[in-house]
Amino acid sequence: MSLQYVVRRVLLFLLIIWVGTSLIFFLPKLAPNRDPVAQRLGMLAATGGVNSDEIDAMVEAYRAKFGLDLPVWRQYLNYMGDMLRFDFNYSLAMYPATVIEIIGRAVPWSVGLLAVSTFFAFLLGSLLGGLLGWPRTPRIVHYISTPFLMMSSVPYYLLGLIVMYIFAFKLKWLPLGGGSQYGTMPSLSWTFIIDVVQHAILPALSMVIAGIGFWALSMRGMMVTTLGEDYVMLAEARGLSPRRIFFRYAMRNAILPQTTGLALSAGTILSGSLLVEVIFRYPGMGSVLYRAITSFDFFMIYGVVFFVVLTVGLATLMLDLIYPFLDPRIRYSRQ
Amino acid sequence: MSSQFWSYIRRNPLLLVGVSLFVLLFLFWAIGPTFIDVTKARPISAMADLAPSAEYPLGTDSVGRQLLPNLLAGSLYTFEIGLAAGTIGLLVGTILGFVAGYFGGTVDSIISTAADVALTIPALAVLVVIAAVIKEGLNVRSMALIVAMLAWMRPARTIRAQVLSMRERPYVEIARLSGMNDFQIIVQELLPNLLPYLAASYVGAVAAALLAAIGLEAMGLGPQNDPTLGMTIFWCNYYGALLRGMWWWWAPPIAAILYVFMGLFAISSGLDELSNPRLRRAR
Amino acid sequence: MSAAVLQVRNLCVHYDTDAGPIKAAENVTFDLAKGERLGLVGESGSGKSTTVLALLRMVTSPGRIRSGQVVVDGTDLMQLSPEQMRRMRGSAVSLIPQAAMNSLNPVMRIRDHFYDTIRAHDRSMDRRQLAEHSAQLVESVGLRPNVLGMYPHELSGGMKQRVCIAMGICLQPKVIIADEPTSALDVVVQRQVMETLGRIQRELDAAIILVGHDMGLMAQFVDKLGIMYAGRLVEVGPVADVFREPLHPYTRLLINTLPSLDVKAVFKGIPGTTPSLLNAPPGCAFHQRCPDASGSCYESDHVLTEVLPGRWVACPCYAGAAA
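ok -> C-alpha cells follow
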C-alpha cells in the first residue's frame, strides 16, 4: 500500500472535518441579523438566579470571542481554535456541565449500539444478498427474505416505533427505553451487562432488520454483476465445486464494491441511529442532540454535530485504509 | 407487441404495483378534500385526546387536531417536500454529474471531491444546524430547499459514472465525427440512454429526501405549524402518545410513511430490473 | 486413424425468449479422434461458441440444450448428473478461454488457481506436491515459477493466456476446447501462444477443438476444418482439402473472400446477411444467399452427409460427385 494512498486518504479526512466544522460555523450566520446564541445567553443571564455571576462571565467571554463587533474572520479563527482543542464551552441547558463532559458520557453508548448493529446488519445482509443473487439458491430463501427486502427503504426509527409497540408495550418482553434500569450505577457486574443488553436489543433490532434488507439488496446486485465475469465462467469450466465458486470467486469479489458502499453510507447509518436513540430514549448522542434541540442549547448542538462529523470521517478513513488489504489490485499496483 | 408487454408485466409485477400504489395515493389526495375538511387539521378543532368514533374517524390528538384531516394534509405536505427536494436534487445532481463526466479534467476533480466530501458529512448533522437556527422560520418550502442541498450527490455520482462509460462508446465517436457539437451529442445521443438511470436516481433522490425531511421533523426541526407526517411523529413522542396507548395518533402516520416507501421501493426495484437485464429471471 | 475420443450427435441448443425459441445450434454432428485438431470457423453468431459451451454443459439460461449426445471416451455427458458432470469439467474436457483479460480471479494468486483446479478433482496431493506440480506446469508453458506468487493484474496478456493454457491441461484432459485463445493478442504473442498450445497438445496426445475466425491461423494449426453457418455445421473435412476445393457454396464464398498474397484483386464479400435464427425460413439455412440454390433447397434443410471419405457436406449438389 503506497504512502501516497494513505496520505491522500488522511488529507481527505482532514478536508472533511474542516469543511464540516466550517459549515457549522457559517451556516447560522446566514440567518439575517440574528445571533441565536447571544440571544440565548441573554435569556440565561436574565433568569440567572444562583449562578448569575458565572453566567455573566460566560456571556462576556462569548462576546469577546464571537461578539458581532468582531470581524468574521476573527470569530472564525477563535472558533477553529476552540474546535481543535475540543473546547465546546458549557452546556447552556445543563450548566455547569460542559458540552464535552456530556458528550463523553454518551459516546460509548452510541458507538456500542452502532458498531454492533452495523456489524450484524452488514454481515448477515451481505450473505443473504449473495445467496439471493446465486442461481442455485433454493426458492425458500427468496420467500423468507422478501419482507426484509421490503423493509430496506423504511427509516430505522419507524421500525423502532413498531418494534417498541409490539415487544415492549404489548408483549412486555423487553424494556420500553433507556440504556439501563433507571437509577442503577454502571459497573462491570453480570446483572448490569445483562441489563444493558436487554435495553439495547430493541434499538439494535430496528437497525438490523432495516439494515439487512439494504445490504442484501445491494449485495444481490453486486453478485449478479460478478457472476457475469469471465473468471467465474472459467471457474465453472475447471470443474470447481459450486460452494468454492460462491465463496472464493463470487462473494470475495462482490464484497469489494459492497465495502465501498459501507464507507459511503456511514453518514446515513449514523443519522438513522441518532433517531433510533431518540425514540428509545437511549442515552447516546441522539438523545443528547434531541434534548439540545428542544432546549435551544446551541453549544451542545454544535458539539454533537462536530462529533458526528468526526465519527463519520474516522469510520470512512478506517474503511478506506482497510480496503487495500481486501483488493490486491490496489495493494500491488503496477507502475 | 402487447403480448410481450403483458408477459413482461407477469415477470416484473413490482413496477406495476408501485405505480398503482401511487395512483391510489393521488386519488386520495385529489378526492379526499371533498369529503374531509382539511382545515380541521389545525389545533383546537375538536376536543383533545378522543379515540376514533363515527364523528372523528381517526380521533384527535392532545392539542385538538382532528387526525383524519391531519393525515390527509400531512401526507400531502410530506410528499411535496420529498418530491420538491428530490427534483431539485436530481436536476442539480444531473447537471453536475454530466459536466463532471463529460468534460473531465479539473472540473471533474473539483465536482467529484465536493460530492465525496458532501456525501461523507452526514446530511443530518448539517441540516440540524441549519434547522435549529432558523426554527421559527421553517415552512414546507424552506424544508424542501434545505433537504435538497444534500440530495444532489448520489445522482451526480451515478450520472457521472454513466457518462464516463458512455463517452468512449463508438456511437458517441461517430456522432462527433459527423460534426455534431457537444450540446447536440448530449441531448440526442447521451440523454436517451441515460433515462433508466435518471429514473432510478430520481426515485432514490425522492426517497432520500423524504427520509431526511421526516428525520429532521421527528427531531422537532420542522415546520411548527404544518402537520407534516414527521412533525406528527414528533408531537407523538413529545406528548408520549405511545405510552398513553393512543394508537390512532402514531399508527396512521407510520402506516402512511410505510406505504409511500414501499411504493417507492417497488418502483425502484421495477426500474432496476428494467435497466439491468441480468437481474431478469429466465423461465 | 485412432478411435473417436469425442462423438457429437445431433446437438441442439435453443434460447428461450419472449418472442420464441432462437435456434442457436441445430443438429450439430461430428467426430474427433485422439490427438486430432479440429478448427471450428464461422461468422459471429454462427453457433461456434454455443456449441462448445454445450459440450461442457455450460449453456446458461435462457439457453437450453434441447437434445443431442456428447460422448467422450464412451461416456455420454448429457446423461450425467450435475455432480458427475462437474468432475468431468477440466479433467475429461477442458476449456481455454478467449482472451484471458479477465479469466483469472483478481483476488487470488496464480498458484491458488492451480491448487483450486487440482484439488477440485484430486484431494490426495499435499501442499508440497501441489507446489511442485504447479511449478512444472508453468514451466511447461514457458513461464518462470515466480509467476505463481503473483496476482493476475501483475501479468501481461500473453502471460495470462499461458497460465490459462497450463490450467487447461493440468488434469490431462482428453479434449481441449480453445475458444479464440489469441484474438486479443498481438501477432508476435499470438505465435508464441499457439506454438505453446500445439506443443502441449501433442505431448498430451489430447484432441483439440480450436474455435475462431482467423482462417490463416486455422490453415497453419488444425488437421480438420469445420464450417458453421446459422447454427448448423455445413462442411467438415481435412483442412488442406477444404481450402483447395471447398464443397459447400458457403465455404466456397468464404475462401474466396480471403485476400491472397499472390493475386491483387478487389476485396470480395458475401452478399446478403445471415438469416434470423428466431424465425428461420424453411429449407436450407443458406438458400437465400446461395448462388446454386434450387428446388429442394427452398423446402427442407440439408443433412450433413459424407460425400467423400472424410469429407462431409450439407448440400445435395455434391452427393456422389467425384473429386
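The mean pLDDT of chain C is 84.
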